[in-house]
Every structure is written in C-alpha cells, then in structure tokens.
Design a protein that fits this description.
By secondary structure, the protein is an alpha/beta fold. It contains 14 helices and 19 strands. The two termini are about 30 Å apart.
C-alpha cells in the first residue's frame, strides 16, 4: 500500500472502538490514512484518538472552512485511492444505497471515483432484516466491496452474523481492492494449489494430504508484488488471498481444463498442487457395497498438467514442485529435465513433514546445474523468497513478455 491514500469512514456503532487499530494496520502496510467521522461515531470514539494514530486531523464537517475552497467532500473525494467505511452501520448502508448526502462521509462516497468498500457492523437481527439485505445487494450490484460481516458474540449479548471483521483482516481485504503495484505489475501469474480428488464412486475418492498452504502463500506473495494472480485450487480449507482470483476444481482433469483456459496469457506458471498421478479408470455411478473380501480398482494415468504447460510453443516461465520422501534432489533434477522446466522447488515430505504443516524447507534447482537453498521456515516466508527469486530469474533471463 506504499503511498496509497485511504479515506477511512467511521460511523456510529460500538465497533468503532476497533477502528483506531484498523488505522494502525493500514499505516503498517504503507498507506496514508485520512479519517472522516460521522456525528454518531464521535459519540463512541474521540476524534483525538484517530488524530493520534493517523497523524492527520479528523474531518467531519461538510463545510470545513479550512478545506480547499470550503468544499471538503470534493477535496477528499479526489484525494482518496480507496474509500473504506468501517464500521458501516445499517443506517449508513441505507444512506449509501439510496444516494443520500446529508453528511460529509456520505457526500464523499457519492463524489469519489475511487473504489468504495464497507465493513458492516450491527446487531444480528438488523443484519438479517430484509431492508438491510436489499440495501447491501444494491451496493454490491453497483460495485461496492463488502468485507464481512463476521459471526459470533455481539456487544448486545446476542450471537450471530453482524460482527465487524477484525482490523487485520479488513486491512488485508483493502489491499486486495487497490490496484496492484510492484515488480510483477502488469504480469499474470497462474498458480495451482492443493490436492485433487479422483472419484471411486459417488461417496469415495482417492486423494492426498496436501493442505494447499504453500500454494496459497505463493499466490499472496505474487499478488503483493503487483501480479494479476489466478489460483486454480483443489479442495482445501483456506480462504482465497485478497486480490487473488480463485478457480475451484476437484479432479486432475478439472484442474487441467482450468489451467488450459488461463495459461495463454500467463507470464509465469507455478505448479504447487499435489495432482493425482492416477485415477480410477471406471468410477462407479452408485455406491459400491461391501460384499467381497477384496476390492480391486483399476487405475489409469492422469494428464500431466505441468508437462503440458512446459511443452507449449508459447509457454510461460514454468516452475514445478518436487515433493519427495527420499533422494530429494536427484528426483527433482530428473523431473526438471524430463519436463523441461525453468525452475523446480524440491522439498521433503512424509509423516509430520510439510503436509498440513505451516513450515517447509525448499531447495531450488534450474537447468545448467543451478542450485539455491531457501532453507527452512514458515511457508509464508518461503513463498516470499521463492517469488522474489522467480522475479530475479525472469528479469535476468529476458523480458517477461518474450517468454
């Protein structure tokens, strides 16, 4: 968010007590934050608090004589790269959906050409009310981004949906809305992640232990460096990183089809997914009953997605992963050569190693005998190192557009 201008609108709900922390989270990411408060918000949190954490005087008056030509709404609307309202009360959401402009914040929302995002916060029954849901649907249709709400215990003592998202999550979501910046700006990075499931019958499948954490971390790192990121994901229990377009698939065949639809204009392809090498040749249409002592399932090879991408005439810079239980680097080198890859990341897997864990250890290998240890660490940290290494390799090899 370096240098980005974020106008944070704070409206009159109890969740406003979290908003100073949100200012801090946004500033940590490099943003400049200007707070605009409604009259109701000032009943919950002092403007002085926001001034202290943002380093800027809080605005709240529609006709502020100290503002440019006393037209605060125009001045602020032009300044903002993103208008973020957190918390957004049911009342303010209704104002915004009906285009009302009776206070500074609502007027700025109408006057700005920047993206607008809201983080709803209200009683669970107010959130569920048909009027609120209709207003939110109207805003979504107009392109307003809606962050949350979350679910859980509320200040009123009730439990349900309507809690404002946590500040750290709102900051991450806001980052995903802003235009991408960084060394990969203007480039498309296609990533596969997670396992695949190969159907035996309608209730059973063959799969593996991949959690998708490494691939999702790589997707976030690429987005953080300005790329347009498409993440083709098998079934995982992870949320898509902010600003990343996720394509959900289940089988190896579905993953292949999704990759082929996206690869034509991709500049970089990173295959972190643990794709099944084999699948049942003739999956049953109905549940297989337990009637025999043995069950034989004939298996057939799946399409090799990584090799298929690497063999294309106009191919992206192609990166594979080699998850091995033994003789790690030799197996990885064989895969690098056989599939004609630009780079491969080798790691050791097995019981209590990598799968479903937050840590990993990577060694990078490339044609000509190149070798670079990234060492051990959190998958998020290794993903940053990997993407930065790819950026350096791509930049040194040739212009990405020529790959």
């Amino acid at each position: 968010m370096d240098g980005k201008h974020i106008l944070l609108g704070v409206t009159g709900g109890i969740a406003a007590y979290k908003s100073p922390d949100l200012v801090r989270r946004l500033i940590e990411r490099g943003a400049q934050v200007q707070v605009v408060m409604t009259a109701g918000a000032r009943e919950f949190v002092s403007p002085l608090t926001f001034q202290a954490v943002s380093g800027r005087e809080v605005r709240s008056d529609l006709w502020d004589e100290s503002a440019e030509r006393a037209m605060s709404h125009i001045e602020l609307a032009r300044w903002a790269d993103l208008v973020l309202i957190a918390p957004a009360t049911a009342d303010f959401i209704a104002h915004l959906s009906h285009g009302l402009a009776d206070n500074l914040l609502a007027t700025v929302c109408l006057a700005t050409s920047a993206p607008v995002a809201i983080a709803p916060a209200m009683n669970q029954q107010m959130w569920a009310n048909a009027a609120t849901q209709a207003n939110v649907a109207t805003l979504r249709a107009r392109g307003v981004h809606v962050f949350g709400p979350g679910s859980g215990s509320q200040a009123c003592g009730e439990v349900g949906e309507g809690r404002m998202m946590e500040p750290v999550d709102i900051a991450a979501a806001a980052f995903g809305v802003l235009p991408a910046e960084g060394p990969l700006k203007g480039r498309k990075v296609l990533i596969t992640a997670g396992p695949t499931r190969e159907r035996i019958d309608p209730v059973r499948f063959i799969s593996n232990r991949s959690s998708g954490k490494m691939g999702y971390a790589v997707a976030q790192a690429a987005r953080d460096r300005g790329a347009e990121v498409v993440l083709v994901s098998g079934p995982v229990n992870l949320c898509a990183p902010p600003g990343v377009r996720r394509v959900c698939v289940e089988s190896a065949a579905q993953m292949y089809d999704a990759v082929m639809r996206e690869v034509d204009d991709a500049d970089i392809f990173i295959a972190t997914a643990a794709v099944a090498d084999y699948r049942p040749a003739a999956p049953a249409n109905i549940k297989i009953k337990k009637v025999n002592d043995c069950l034989e399932v004939r298996m057939e090879r799946t399409i090799d997605i990584l090799a298929a991408v690497a063999q294309r005439e106009r191919r992206p810079y192609t990166v594979g992963f080699a998850a091995e239980t033994n003789d790690i680097e030799n197996h990885a080198l064989a895969k690098l050569t056989k599939k004609n890859l630009d780079l491969i990341a080798a790691n050791e897997v097995g019981d209590n190693k990598v799968f479903e864990q937050d840590d990993n250890s990577l060694v990078l290998l490339w044609p000509g005998g190149g070798r670079q240890e990234l060492g051990a660490g959190a998958k998020t940290e290794l993903a940053v190192k990997l993407v930065d290494f790819i950026v350096a390799r791509v930049s040194g090899r040739c212009d990405v557009t020529d790959i």
